[in-house]
Amino acid sequence: MPNAESPAPASTTADLQRLTAALADPAPLNWLITGDSITHGLVHTQGGRSYPEHLHELIRGELARVRDIVINSAISGNRIADILDDWDRRVASWNPDVVTLMIGTNDVSTGGERPVLSAAEYAESLREFVRRARDLDAVVVLQTPPAVDGLNAPERSRIAEFAEAVRRVAAEEDVLLVDQYARYAELGNGGVPWGLMGDPFHPNAAGHAALALELARTLGLTPAGSRTLPLLEAQVGAARLNA
Predict the structure, then answer these.
(1) Which conformational region is residue 99 in: left (phi greater than 0), alpha (psi within -120 to 50 degrees), or beta?
(2) Fewest 10 Å CB contacts: which of 75, 83, 133, 144?
(3) What is the C-alpha separation between 100 and 72, in angstroms, rounded?
C-alpha cells in the first residue's frame, strides 16, 4: 500500500483506514478481484457489465484514479482450493494492494466428481487465503456468495451454511466483510431475488449491479455526484419490480 509507514496490525478498522488514506493519495493501487464464475462474470449477464467491471468504472472513471489497475482473475467452476493451488498467477504476481474474494458457490456443491467439502474445511481454506493475502501486505475483503435457488439447484442448497462460514472467518480474522448473501436475502424479501438471477445460482446483469453497489458502499467507493451508482440502484429496483 503506498506511503504505508509502520502499519498497524491487520484488522478491519486498520484496513479501512489504510484504504481511505490510499484513496486520498495519488500513488496508484493494484486491485485484485478473484473468485468463481460469478466474479468471472461471463454468459449470465447476457452482455451486461459484471460487478468487477462496475468497480473498474468507479475507480478508474468516477474517482479518476486512472493509474490504478483493476484485475479480475476469477475462473468459472473454481473452488477456493483452485485459487490457493494457483496462488502466484491468480494473486501474488499482481502485487495487489487490495484483494477481494467471492468464492463458495462451487465449494458447496454435492454434485459432480469433486469431493464434497464441509463448511469447516472451506473455512480453513479461507483462513489460508487471508493469511497469504496479508503476507502480501494487501487489504483483504471477503464476500459471502449470493443466494441460490435451492429447489432448482439442490446440490448447492447448503449455501447459507457456507455464507455463515465466511462471516465467521471474517470476524475471527478481523477482515473486511461484504455480506452479499444477506443483501440478496433483503432484496428478495427473505427469499431468492428472482429479478436478479440469470439461473438458479448465477446473478444476471441486475444482480451484478446489486453486488457492485454493496461492495462499493463497504469500501467507500461512493464518489460525490456519481452517475454510476444511481444507475445501478435504478437497475436493481427495476429488476425487483419486474421479477
Answers:
(1) beta
(2) 75
(3) 10
Q: Where are the alpha helices (DSSP H) in 86-145?
A: 87-90, 119-135
pLDDT, averaged across the chain: 95
Q: β-strands 69-72, 139-143: how paired?
A: unpaired
Average pLDDT over residues 13-33: 97
CA–CA dist 107, 105 (Å, integer):
6
Do residues 114 and 49 make contact, with C-beta atoms less than 8 angstroms apart?
no
Spatial distance between the Cα atoms of 163 and 120, rounded to a whole number of angstroms: 12
Q: Is the pLDDT of residue 240 over 90?
A: no
CA distance 95 to 136: 7
CA distances from 241 to 46, 47, 195, 238 (A): 20, 21, 8, 5
Rounded-to-integer distance, Cα 122 and Cα 114, Å = 14
The three-class DSSP label of residue 217 is: helix
The helix or strand, by DSSP H or E, that contains position 60, with its residue range, turns out to be none
Q: Which of 176, 163, 98, 81 is nearest to 133 (CA)?
A: 98
Q: Does this model's pTM top 0.85? A: yes
Asked if 144 and 166 count as a contact pair (C-beta separation under 8 A), the reply is yes
The fraction of the chain above a pLDDT of 90, given in percent, is: 93
- Weakest-pLDDT range from 79-83, 103-107, 236-240: 236-240
